[in-house]
UniProtKB/TrEMBL annotation:
Keywords: Carbohydrate metabolism, Galactose metabolism, Isomerase, NAD. Homodimer. This is UDP-glucose 4-epimerase. It catalyses: UDP-alpha-D-glucose = UDP-alpha-D-galactose. PANTHER family: UDP-GLUCOSE 4-EPIMERASE. One of its GO terms (molecular function) is UDP-glucose 4-epimerase activity. GO terms for biological process: galactose metabolic process.
Amino acid sequence: MKGKILVTGGTGFIGSHTTVELQNAGYEVVIIDNLSNSNREVLDGIEHITGIRPVFVEGDCANIDTLRQLFKENPGINGIIDFAASKAVGESVHKPILYYRNNLNILLNLLDLMPEFGVKGFVFSSSCTVYGEPDVNPITEDAPIKKATSPYGETKQVSEDIIHDVIVSGSPIKAIILRYFNPIGAHPSGEIGELPNGVPQNLVPYLTQTAIGIRKELSIFGDDYPTPDGSCIRDFINIVDLAKAHVKALERMLDDKSDSNLEYFNIGTGEGLSVLQLLHAFESATGVKVPHRIVGRREGDIVKIWADPTKANTVLGWKAEVSIADTMRSAWNWQKKLRERGIM
Ligand code: WQD
């Protein structure tokens, strides 16, 4: 094995896909997840894809005693990829204490324990929300960080500051912060994918649930923005491409490819796509029409943001590869599998 990696939140959407790519790259994976926004069956999906069932610890990373016990029972962990967090932008506005306590405690616990157990590399799941509404697109890593528009976004900004301060304080760890844009799609096998609890907040799961008839119609939150077709623009990145970026980041640290102890990378395609363009891409890629209606703007939405991924392409050696059409087909395939399995 190339090494043993702890994936926090590993039964979640991004965590499960990253676990598959870590196993494909020859790493042993230990997952800790409290299953607050995912389920144990994800482990079956991972095993069906790779033939390897990750070690699974059901537990709360916000509890330092739980984490210390995990490190004692799973010696030799070389790296950590930290996905575990509360992540609903809208919910965070109504429950700020829950978001600050949970997201920051998890991070502080991990940073505290890493030196104690000789863990070397730390990959942190951040978000393009740290940029707020960009002045210029495509956006590079040195763009100004603007005041977050939600407690969720603020926890990502504060987390980045905490990691920076811990590194400059002389901690022996290395860290890479990945700022994602909009992760979408599902593993092409249909074994794992995005499965939000309750009514989806994000565009693509709501779109595929509408396409299959679970939802009556997709609301398009505004077509009166200053964009070519009036709808918001995003950088939609395939989930498997995103997962592979994490393996690249980990290898960069574990193989000592960088003399910096802290690096930041935007993980996006570099292409801006509007909400309406994505909807039409789904319909043409799958042949399935999606009932939809233009409604009012959603509060807090950024008008347009897409990545300049040059640094990730050249320094990390990573590039988005899967087309939007194939990504839409993967999302639709996943939704149909959920129906076949009676899950939804
Ligand atoms: C995308 C666009 C909506 C739903 C958030 C977080 C980000 C990351 C991804 C966690 C917007 C429009 C959406 C719908 C719509 N989350 N939309 N109808 O807000 O760009 O990013 O999720 O890490 O950090 O900020 O993603 O998918 O919610 O919205 O018209 O039913 O789709 O208005 O323009 P968002 P989203």
